[in-house]
Write a structure and sequence with these properties.
Pfam families: HAMP, HATPase_c, His_kinase
Helix content: 55-70%
CATH class of the domain at 428-587: Alpha Beta
Keywords: ATP-binding, Cell membrane, Kinase, Membrane, Nucleotide-binding, Phosphoprotein, Transferase, Transmembrane, Transmembrane helix, Two-component regulatory system
Domain HAMP: 311-363
Domain Histidine kinase: 480-590
Number of helices: 18
Subcellular location: Cell membrane
Strand order of the largest sheet: 2-1-5-4-3
CATH superfamily of the domain at 428-587: Histidine kinase-like ATPase, C-terminal domain
Length: 593
């Protein structure tokens, strides 16, 4: 998250404008589209739920009417006949029983063919004598019905009808019969009707809305089902219909379902409708498609418009930035004509004024400073050439005296070596042209220089080299180390008794070349170090001009500063009585091949 924020902070102003406008439009569009889609889907679900409640209410009324018609018809047929009287008679044996049975059978036959959807009729008299009739081809559900019937329970219902569902989906209406005049129990009648008699109501519902419709009887047992999907079976197995009436949500098979339960009067029937929410909201896919399409088109148009607007806003800033970058390189300023009078235009006018003043300062100050530095550099060049053209008299005197002494005491071989090294040193110091040589050549000159001193001082001097061969091809100013090494010898050997240690090292650090000359001589105070590194302090101390080594060290420092800038030069660290370390910092520049 922080990385994204940093990228946004470091981005160009036009990118910030473009991203900001795009994000605002995207959030606004997504919010409006999401709310519209959510409200639309909610309205569809709500309206569908209300319509579902209305449908199952109509189903309840229709089923109540259909079942009541069968009950009323059976009662009217019973009331308009002499069946009550015949059932009240005790059955007799022989011929005297025949008229009673014939009347009952004729009643059954008339009742069976009263409606086409009647499949069977069963009468049980008070003495539990059974009389039944069924249509040809009808299933023998009467026998199964007799096993399920509880005659005492039917009798206790006092003429109120009870409906059963047979094993072959035949629907049975069962009710007790009572004599109208005496209200005495005379028997039980059961009428079997086709399941389609009530199932046709559910078929019409399926043409209006998808889903399973279940009709439960007063015992909460399945009576008629309009489809039996796995979800409906799961609903019944979990007895969710016993939780009461109203709306219930449940999940099955990775889908979400809504069930509506409605009970008719006296809880005679319960109508359950189970709806797949996915099927219910399938019409919203077109809404989702058009919403996403509209959002993408709007976002594309808004992005192009935002790109155009952001370009117009940042064009002046881009031009101003280009001119500022060009001005920092060559200080040549072309007047910028602002395209507007807004804050950017005012900033452009102020920049034009500032650039003109900087040009004036550059012409009056900076160029004068460059001329002064060039003159100072030429003076130093003359000093270096004069220093290169002569050797230290003290060094030459000691060298010649040593040659003279050794000529007397020792053989010619060592004297010859000393003379050879001296000649080679003089040739290298005076013979090389140019102001820049390689580090390898400079180190070779120092080795020859120190070899002469090693012969002169013998065991009193010890030299240690810590150099990197990969840095040998780096460019260094000519005659840059000799004044430092000479200073180490003068203060490390001549002014302090004992063995002198001189260490010369070169290394690379942060892309720069570091050359270090260290000795164990007498050291120097901090004040003297400040005078050596500060030309102004050096000029105010005439007594120091007499010391040749100080002139060389100061010249080295000033020469490096002029050639490479203020970030380069000498760094001196010293402790009185312990020694001095002089570090030369130069840019690492490889010799061009």
């Amino acid at each position: 998250m922080r990385t994204i924020r940093n990228l946004f902070v470091d981005a160009k102003l036009r990118t910030k404008f473009l991203l900001s406008i795009t994000i605002i439009i995207l959030i606004t569009g997504l919010t409006i589209s999401g709310i519209n889609y959510w409200v639309s889907v909610g309205a569809i679900k709500r309206n569908s739920g209300e319509f579902s409640q209305y449908l199952i209410g109509q189903i309840g009324l229709n089923i109540d009417k259909l079942t009541t018609d069968v009950e009323r018809m059976a009662f009217q047929q019973f009331r308009n006949s002499s069946l009550s009287e015949k059932l009240s008679q005790l059955p007799e044996a022989g011929e005297s029983r025949y008229p009673r049975d014939k009347y009952i059978n004729d009643f059954l036959n008339d009742l069976l063919f009263y409606e086409d959807y009647y499949l069977s009729v069963l009468i049980i008299d008070a003495q539990d004598q059974h009389y039944s009739i069924r249509r040809k081809g009808a299933s023998k559900d009467n026998e199964n019905l007799l096993e399920r019937l509880d005659l005492n329970e039917i009798r206790d219902m006092r003429g109120r009808a009870h409906w059963y569902r047979g094993e072959n989906d035949t629907l049975f209406m069962v009710k007790a019969l009572y004599d109208i005049a005496t209200t005495r129990y005379v028997g039980i009648i059961a009428i079997g009707v086709e399941s389609n008699y009530i199932g046709s109501v559910l078929t019409r519902v399926h043409n209006l809305m998808d889903g399973d419709v279940l009709i439960l009887d007063e015992n909460n047992e399945l009576f008629v089902a309009g489809g039996r999907s796995e979800a409906a079976q799961y609903y019944l197995s979990k007895t969710m219909h016993l939780s009461g009436t109203g709306k219930t949500d449940f999940d099955y098979g990775g889908k979400h379902y809504i069930s509506n339960v409605l009970a008719t009067d006296y809880d005679k029937w319960k109508i359950v409708q189970i709806i797949d929410v996915g099927q219910l909201t399938r019409g919203t896919e077109s809404i989702k498609y058009w919403t996403i399409s509209t959002l993408l088109v709007s976002l594309l148009f808004a992005f192009l418009l935002a790109a155009r607007i952001s370009k117009n806003i940042t064009e002046n800033i881009r031009v101003l930035l280009q001119r500022m970058s060009s001005f920092t390189l060559d200080f040549n300023h072309e007047v910028i004509v602002p395209r507007s009078r807004d804050e950017v235009g005012m900033l452009t006018v102020k920049f034009n004024t500032m650039a003109e003043k900087i040009n004036d300062l550059f012409n009056s100050v900076y160029r004068e400073k460059l001329l002064k530095q060039k003159a100072e550099y030429r003076t130093l060049q003359f000093e270096y050439k004069a220093l290169q053209a002569q050797m230290n008299p003290h060094f030459l005197y000691n060298t010649l005296e040593s040659i003279y002494s050794m000529a007397k005491i020792k053989g010619e071989e060592e004297i010859g070596e000393l003379i050879y090294l001296l000649g080679k040193l003089l040739r290298e110091s005076l013979g090389k042209k140019g102001d820049v040589i390689t580090l390898r050549e400079e180190l070779e000159f120092i080795r020859n220089y120190l070899s002469i001193h090693s012969i002169i001082y013998g065991d009193r001097i010890e030299v240690d080299y810590a150099t990197d061969e990969e840095l040998g091809d780096c460019e260094v100013p000519k005659f840059i180390l000799q004044p430092l090494v000479e200073n180490a010898i003068v203060h490390g050997i001549e002014e302090k008794p004992g063995k002198a240690l001189i260490r010369i090292a070169c290394e690379e650090a942060d892309g720069d070349l570091l050359l270090t000359v260290t000795d164990n001589g007498v050291g120097m105070e901090e004040e003297k170090i400040r005078r050596l590194l500060n030309p102004e302090l050096y000029e105010t101390a005439p007594s120091e001009k007499k010391k040749h080594t100080n002139v060389g060290v100061i010249s080295v420092h000033k020469r490096i500063r002029i050639l490479y800038g203020e970030g380069y030069g000498l760094e001196i660290s010293s402790q009185v009585g312990e020694g001095t370390s002089v570090r030369v910092r130069l840019p690492r520049v490889q010799t061009a091949e």
